[in-house]
Amino acid sequence: MTASPVGRATDRVEGRLKVTGAARYSADHPAQGTAYAHVVTSTIARGTITGVDTAAALAAPGVLRVYAAPEPRLRLYPVAEQVRGFSENYAPLQDADVRFHGQIIAMVVAETSEQARDAAALVTATYDARPPRTSLADGPRVEAGPSTGGTPSAVTVLAPGTDSIDAALAASDVVVEAAFHQPVQHHVAMEPQATLAVWNGDRVTVHAGAQIPAAYALVLSQRLGVLPGNVQLITRHVGGGFGGRVPVWSDAPLAAAAARELGRPVKLVLTREQVFTLAGHRSHLTQTVRLGASNDGILNAVSHESVAEMPASGGWNLLPAHSSSDTLYSTPNLRTDPHQVILDLPASRAMRGPNEAPGAFALETAMDELAIATGVDPVELRLRNYATVGPATGRPWSSKHLDECYRVGARRFGWSERDAAPRARVDGQWLLGTGMASAVYPATLHPANVRVRLLDDDTAVVSTAISDLGTGGWTMVAIAGADALGIPLERVTPEIGDTALPQGAPAVGSSATHSTVPMVVQAARDTIAELKRRAVTDAGSPWHGTDAADLRYERGSLHGHGRSMTFGQLLTTLGAPGVDATAAGPGGAPAQYGYHSFGAHFCEVRVNRFTGEARVTRFTTVADVGRIINARAARSQLVGGVIFGIGHALLEENPLELDTGRLAASTLADYLVPVHADIPDIDVHLLDRPDPVLTGPLGDGDEEVGTRSLGARGLGEIGTVGSAAAVGNAVFHATGIRVRDVPITPDKLL
Ligand code: MOS
């Protein structure tokens, strides 16, 4: 029997292309006659452009066009209300308004990228400037809206007879109150935003990195004022997304509009500096968590308030308590209260556990403070408050093994040897400490369409327009196809990243795998049913005139009436090159359950007593993420998530200049992310307990069409939820200093 590849450590199917440089990212695609664009950005944060001097740029070598705001030659249109979440609130170069520092105010197109960049440096502008709103204390304060999943933003649950969360807190034996501040952070995908637009009549083919190809093409069609079907988006290899490739930013519509106006393909690649203001960031915010508990640490009240930036130019509705404070612990009284302040900043966007990572930093730091206040061990404290139903919903989970994460993690890490007292372990210059935190991330089943095609050479093609941001999507599709069809992985060709394919699941919210896999199984079933139908109805078939119910499919072959043929042999006999079927999944899972992935993080740090430098020396993560499809990619996702958490805790920050509205960091030399030297070997353990509900009934491996791939649940972001708090809690344990405004830089530890 062909062993299913499900759960094994499988190399990326596109790995060779990537390591040999043969994989083409958006900017790598060639097109005959391409012209190159370069954008010019504003040097004020708010006001009106009074003039743009383009004369010097127009006279520079190789320059074809200089477009400047307001630009009548590049018509771009507003997008419909329903897709607002996938774009900014304005179309670039259509008016003279400046909405943030670093907005596009002009664009040069030239014969070469060097000429375009050179000429762009010659463009100057004058402004009528107004003071920007930049402080969370400044602007109009609005209540946050519901989450994209429809979850209400503000949640209040009160025990009978309790009037308010404040009353519940006041009635508690122990109260912990902690206020947090988090600066602007960035996605910093390796590949900067890049677009190649090629028109053919009134149709345009766009190469660009996109997490949701169908939404991206739809928004782009609206910006350009063409029919939705007239935009084909190709997004095969993508150098990271992390939320920053969900929307259509200003660059892609401008490149496409210029290509249309010029009658030539146009390529536009943003510089790293431009990416910092033109492709999103995580909103900065303040949070206040209040926990009320009994003397033995049983929670009586959880209150989580937040005030986050909402850029006027467009932004992410940040709900940091969502899925951390409103989900993680059992409590009779719960209040989440998110607010937003409208500021004149670049558009913000969902980023790497968008609500959950900042929210869990606050909640899980406060839980550590409660552990100190009550003298209860941090793991034991979490077990004492273990939720078996959602505290806000009352629903049980489809599958939850967080208690096992704590126990397995504590054992692997050696938690029991811990001395609870802070600043107790010293090794020469270094203070040693350990800390832990929980992780939770919602699992949403999104609509997905998958086509399975069997070919006459005994290979199969599995097609779905998902995007692989480097996460392993290509390989996941191949594994699910091989499992469903019972054929070797090498005989399955995955096709993704092209809106000409059946519309795939969005690569957001850690949901692409569990949304896609059930539809691969369904499409394989439907394709085999079609193969059987052809086997009994086609005149050339040896099974012609028999009953399809007598045929059995197994491991790439049909069997029946004493005869066996591979699907390739049958298709060859029939003279049919292939047979296919497409399955369409509507998304959604039974409403009586809650669906989340869970995890527990354990961290050891060393903090230098003299310099304040904090180094993470050990990290163990145990995650409950359903069935593992690809052990290698899964571990890699968890490791990446923890690295994000370490960056969040210790390094990542873009300081905002309050007077100018300028984000100070614009390179990877001043916006710091972890490098290899910052990261220890990370111990990842995945429980591999299939979710029996989220993706439908589990198979036992004996089905005609394999269902071993069912039971997966998202794992893309769970590693980044709570991991920053585990670092911060370890820093507190090492030093006795509690830092609530990340990043925990050396100056805060001296
Ligand atoms: Mo992700 S922040 O859901 O793209």
TrEMBL record:
GO terms for molecular function: iron ion binding; oxidoreductase activity. It holds the Pfam family MoCoBD_1. Residues 20-131 form the Aldehyde oxidase/xanthine dehydrogenase a/b hammerhead domain. Keywords: Molybdenum, Oxidoreductase. Residues 131-153 are annotated as: Disordered. SMART domains: Ald_Xan_dh_C. PANTHER family: ALDEHYDE OXIDASE 1-RELATED, XANTHINE DEHYDROGENASE. This is Aldehyde oxidase/xanthine dehydrogenase a/b hammerhead domain-containing protein. It comes from Streptomyces marincola.
